[in-house]
Each structure stands twice: as C-alpha cells, then as structure tokens.
Write a structure and sequence with these properties.
This protein is α+β, with helices and mostly antiparallel strands. The protein has 14 helices and 20 strands. It has a 5-stranded mixed beta sheet. The chain has a 5-stranded mixed beta sheet with strand order 13-12-11-14-15, sandwiched between helices. Strands 16, 17, 18, 19 and 20 form a 5-stranded antiparallel beta sheet that branches. A hairpin with a 2-residue loop joins strand 11 and strand 12. The radius of gyration is 51 Å and the shape is elongated. The N and C termini lie far apart (about 110 Å). The relative contact order is 0.09.
C-alpha cells in the first residue's frame, strides 16, 4: 500500500493505493491545514502544520510506509529542456547549467526531471526539469519524520501532473488541455501533437459554484491560447479534460469555454483513476495527489538526486578546507585559553584556602571575638548617649514662662486691659491669665494683638463676664507658648 500526499495551500489531499506505472487508487482523504501554516507550498509554521497532519494521519489510520509527497511551490523552478543522450551524472550537470541564469548556488539546490520521450531521429531526450532548494526539502522531511514517517520521495506537483498526462491522456489525444481545479487554484497543462508544451497555474478570486468562478476557469485558458499564437502552433485543441468539477457543472462550463472562443469540448477526466464509481469525483478533485501514485521513475524524485548531490558534497573543496582550518585553529586557541583560565582558577583557589586558614586560626578568631565584644559595648554606650540627647532635646523643646514672656503679655495689654496671671502649665506650655477692662472691645483688641505675637502658638479665651462691683469686663485667656520660648 502506497500513500501520496499533496501540499500546496490549505487544502491537503492524501491518496492511498498502489503505486506503479499504472497507479490504482483505493481511498482519498482531504483535510484543511491550519490557516497560514503553508502558503504556495512554502511552510510558514512547521509546528502547527506537522501537528495537524499527525493528528489527521493517526485518526484515519493512514499507512506510514511507502509515502510520497507531491508539492506545488513557487520555490521550485521548472523548464522544458532537450538534453543529449548522456549518463545520469552528466545529465544532472547539463540540467544544472540550464538553471544557471536563476543565480542559485548549485550546492543549495537539487534536481529532478520527468522524462517526456526521446526524438528517434536526433536521439535527444525531452525532459521537464525542475530545481528545488535543499532547505525546503529538508523541512518537508523533518515534518513527516516528526510523525514517524520516512518520506520515500518528494515530487513536484507540475512534474507529477505532466507525467500523469503523458502516461494516460497523451495516448487518447494528441493536442489537448488538462485542467485541474483545486479550490481557488486552477492548473492547465497543454500538450501539442503528443508533446508537453506549456503549464500555468492561476488563482481564482470568485466563489466556487458561481458563474463568475466558471468564467475565471475559462479565462485561464486564454494564456494557453496566447502561448499557442506566440509559438505559431496551428494544431487545434481536440479536447479539454477537466478534473475537480461535477458533471452538473460541466455542460454549463462547456458553454462558458465556447463563449471565450475555445472550440474544444470539455469532458471529465476518468482515465487511470479508480474503477470505483463512488471515488470518481474524489479522485478528480485530488488529481495532484492521485498522480503521485503513477510511478514516473526515480529521476522525478527530488530525494534521489538530493542524495546523489550530498555524496558529491562530501569531497572537500579548497574553501571548505580553509573553513575547517579556521575552525581547528579556533578550537586550539580556545583550548589554550581554557588552560590559562584553569591555571588562574587553581591559583585563586590556593589563595582562597590560605585566607580561609588564616581566618580560622585561633589567634585571629580570639581577636575577632574581642572586636565583636568591644563593638557591642560601644553600641550600647552609643544607644544610651543618644537616649540622653533625646531627653535633653525634648526638655529643651518645652517653653518657659519667664519674665520676658510675662513682660510681652503685660506690654501687649498696655492701654487696653489690666491683666492678672493666674497659672502656668509647664507640661503643656500654657499660660492662663485674666484680662479686665471697662470697655469689652478693648479686651478683644488686646487679644488680637496677642495673636500677632510669634511667641504664642495658640491664643484661646472664654466668654467675658461683667463685675457690678468693679464695673469692669473680665475675660480668661489661655495662651499656648511656641516651642522653646523663654529658653534663649
């Protein structure tokens, strides 16, 4: 049992069957890759793509042996070539030279080709040759290796579908078009007089199943007509083989094609596909995957020539040798530096041991204990000193009701009231006195003057009272002295 997996964009198709010159299909599976994980055959997120395929593979119990990957990618370049009859090594070298105009390093790419026959007169082989980056192939190999699958081959989608048409449809018609519809991607293969001549792939932007979508499919054939006109090809197209649409849409599509000036009739592809009628539409839709079941020889497999190129790469060129010398020299230098670092470390460890032994000696430890005891005594005395200072500072912050304070109180009252100091609360710094005057307004003016004195923090008073015996107004005043007043 063989498996052929098709990668291009989100739609991943898997064909299971027998791989041979005439492949036999038994089952088709389709899944949608995580959005953005693969675009135009280029893996953007290997982790999510590999995880999705692994889960789908195990869920459907798909075989893990004899697995081939068919991939459509804009990183893979293709050319229609005529090559002299040579051995494999010379053929590969000839093809590589034909791709030299693409400015790619030979060592970073590998080659595969699909044989399209040999001209019996000139004995020149006709090939569809393709060049693929090795890093892309390695990425595909790693994705499948992560799910326990060893890829037996990686084949280009273009080469695979061209080879399929060469092995099947070219035996029924000489000049024809194979049109493969895969979601919003349509690919066209043109054969003229039994020989492959042109391939194109167009993205459709309208919704499948609409007239606009059918118009997009028919419009993609115009490029083939332009190619035929440019190449002055006069052979009329006999048939258009369509894969990926339904019989219900075929008649409608046939009319759209004729409206675009193409006279050939459209018919569904059925050659070489499964004999099971229930698989007819699925096999057409997944024709790229199915084409991978048609064995087109080891030359069409990128892994064949990938391995061959790696053997050649084992021979060291001067540039590689120079790099190795640099690496070895760097390694020697690093070893020397490591030795120096190790020696310095041993020296530091010896000094550390000497210092440790000195610190642990009885005499040093006794000195340290004496120092600690003296430090504790000093700290205790310093704490007592600081405490005494705090008490002194606190005491000095209390105000004192001295002669100067009394003089200020009396001087302020002069001309307004007669005062009599009643008490002084040293703890609160509060002076209580009585102010008497014939006019109550004079008392309030006196209090206003007290408020202007900066030796008082607050000035409070009670309500006044009138003494009938003396004929005077009497008010009690409480003045809280500001901090440290009277201690100058």
């Amino acid at each position: 049992m063989s498996v052929s997996v098709y990668f291009s964009n989100q739609i991943i198709q898997i064909a299971v069957g027998t791989r041979a010159r005439k492949g036999k299909l038994q089952k088709v599976y389709t899944t949608i890759a995580p959005e953005g994980s693969i675009i135009n055959g280029i893996v953007m997120d290997a982790g999510s793509l590999g995880s999705h395929i692994k889960g789908f593979w195990e869920m459907n119990s798909i075989p893990k042996k004899d697995v081939y990957l068919v991939v459509n990618s804009n990183k893979i370049a293709g050319k229609n070539l005529s090559v002299p009859n040579m051995n494999s090594k010379k053929t590969l070298a000839f093809i590589m030279r034909e791709f030299s105009d693409m400015q790619r390093e030979d060592a970073e790419n590998t080659i595969a080709f699909t044989s399209l026959g040999t001209d019996k007169k000139s004995k020149v082989r006709r090939l569809y040759a393709e060049l693929a980056p090795k890093d892309q192939l390695r990425e595909f190999i790693e994705i499948f290796a992560g799910m326990g699958v060893t890829l037996k081959g990686i084949i280009s989608g273009e080469g695979s579908i061209i080879g399929y048409a060469q092995m099947t449809l070219a035996k029924l018609s000489k000049t024809f078009i194979l049109q493969v519809v895969n979601g919003n991607l349509v690919s066209n293969v043109l054969f003229v007089d039994g020989l492959f001549r042109y391939y194109n792939s167009i993205r459709c932007f309208n919704e499948p199943g609409t007239m606009e979508y059918l118009d997009d499919l028919a419009r993609s054939l115009n490029q083939l007509e332009q190619f035929m006109n440019t190449e002055k090809i006069t052979s009329p197209v006999e048939r258009i083989y369509v894969a990926g649409t339904t019989r219900d849409d075929l008649n409608q599509y046939n009319q759209v094609v004729h409206d675009h000036g193409v006279e050939a009739n459209c018919e569904l592809v059925h050659t070489g596909l499964s004999a099971d009628p229930t698989l007819e539409h699925e096999s057409q839709t997944a024709l790229f995957a199915v084409s991978g079941l048609f064995d087109q020889g080891s030359e069409s497999n990128f892994l064949t020539n990938f391995s061959m190129k790696k053997e050649g790469e084992n021979t060291l060129d001067p540039r590689t040798k120079k790099r190795i010398v640099i690496v070895i020299s760097t390694l020697v230098l690093m070893l020397v530096l490591m030795g120096v670092a190790l020696t310095l470390r041993l020296i530091r460890e010896a000094k550390y041991k000497e210092a440790k032994d000195y610190n642990n000696s009885p005499s040093v430890m006794m000195q340290a204990m004496a120092y600690d005891e003296a430090t504790q005594k000093r700290d205790a005395m310093l704490a007592k000193y600081n405490s005494i200072n705090t008490v002194v500072e606190t005491i000095e912050s209390y105000p004192v009701c001295n002669d100067k304070v009394i003089e200020t109180i009396e001087e302020t009252a002069r001309g307004y009231a007669d005062i009599e100091i009643l008490s002084f609360d040293a703890e609160q710094g509060k002076v209580t006195f009585s102010a008497k005057a014939e006019n109550v307004n004079d008392i309030y003016k006196y209090i206003d003057k007290l408020l202007l004195e900066d030796i008082f923090m607050t000035v409070d008073h009670t309500g006044y009272s009138y003494d009938d015996g003396t004929g005077l107004y009497d008010i009690h005043v409480n003045c809280t002295l500001a901090e440290s007043v009277g201690r100058d």
